[in-house]
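Notebook, p. 212. Picked up where the previous page left off. The plan for this session was modest: take the two constructs that came back from the sequencing core last week, fold each one, and keep the raw output in the notebook itself so nobody has to go hunting through shared drives later. Recording the first one now, exactly as returned: residue sequence, then the structure token string.
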Amino acid sequence: MAQHFATIAAEMATRQVCRNPPENLARLSRQGWNLERAWATTRTLPTLAPARRETQTQNQTGTRDKPKREDMAIALRTFVVLDNLQPQLASFIGKTARGFLPLPGMASLFVEIAPGIAINRVTDVALKATTVAPAIQIVERAFGLLEVHDRDQGAVRSAGRAILADLGVEEGQRIKPRIATNQVIRAIEPYQAQIINKDSWGMMILPGDSLFILETEPAGYAAYAANEAEKAANVKLIEVRPFGAFGRLWMSGSESEIDSAREAAIAALEGVEGVAGK
């Protein structure tokens, strides 16, 4: 017990000396302290600072492993190639996007991941690997969306492969799209048509048109549904929002054309393979 107290007292005295060596050493000497004798008595060495915490791990052989790189867990939500951008969708992207605008007939890739901040890294990988150009990059806290396009469909698919390789996932590990809302309103009323037109960036819906509304989860698949619906029917693209918690699509036209567009959009989404979302 006496040896323990001697150790504590000696270390406290040493710490005082280290804080201000000239004054504290003289003061402790006047008080009768002999640090050399104190440490010789306890037969211990002073510990003036806590040891630096080891950041390495020790394996079974006793050697030190190198610190591992801590990567954030990235979930692949949307991954889909649009082989032939339709005129209305290409024009809609050109009107609303802030990046390099696509033209009709180009191939396009939509990638959506979580968390959203990691989409910056995805963009970097795609642009360094190929000649694709980005039109859309949306960074939200939860999800991030990227669209890239090129006249050469092979370049777009190569960009997709580079992204998958960097994320360490396969295309089949994307989330399978789920249709949250699927409805048709027949013979839209004039006042409702005006309300919709006030909040849309695409074509105008006219009174008497039929309106097709679709919600998808994940959101990025709304663009794919819009493109496939435009391929199948003579309809007007009112609005598409392929980002956020849910993607939304509005289209208008005659009853028969809207029914055809609806069937094509649903069939396209149901044909996408993937894993069930949580």
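Okay, moving on. Second construct, recorded in the same format:
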Amino acid sequence: MRVSSTSKSMRMIAALSGIVILLSCGGGGDSTTAPSTNPPVTPPPSQPNTIMTAGNAFAPPTITIVAGTSVTFTLPFNHNAEFESSAISDLGFGVSAARTFAAPGTYRFRCEAHSSSYSDGMSGTVVVQ
């Protein structure tokens, strides 16, 4: 009996389908999963002496620097930095700019839209030594 080429093709497809099914089923009955070989995702390191926002919070909320150091504030369109001290000029909404803190002290700031005082809500502190 002669086998047609169509019949051979059909058997070949059936055999390959069976192999694919077996390979996709995995190994055995072990239901544990191997630990991931991918390293955990970590955020990029923050820039030194930079204050940014994370939601409705400053990040970091407190920074300590030495006198004469500049701090860069990177603020999106919906946040500003209003300083309690008149020695430091305020930063408007959506501004990215640096402020230099010449004298030692504690300089508190807040986002006018998201804080009612300099010690709650979206507020922060620059400690100058």
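Notes on construct two before I forget. The longest strand covers residues 69-74.
Flagging for discussion at group meeting.
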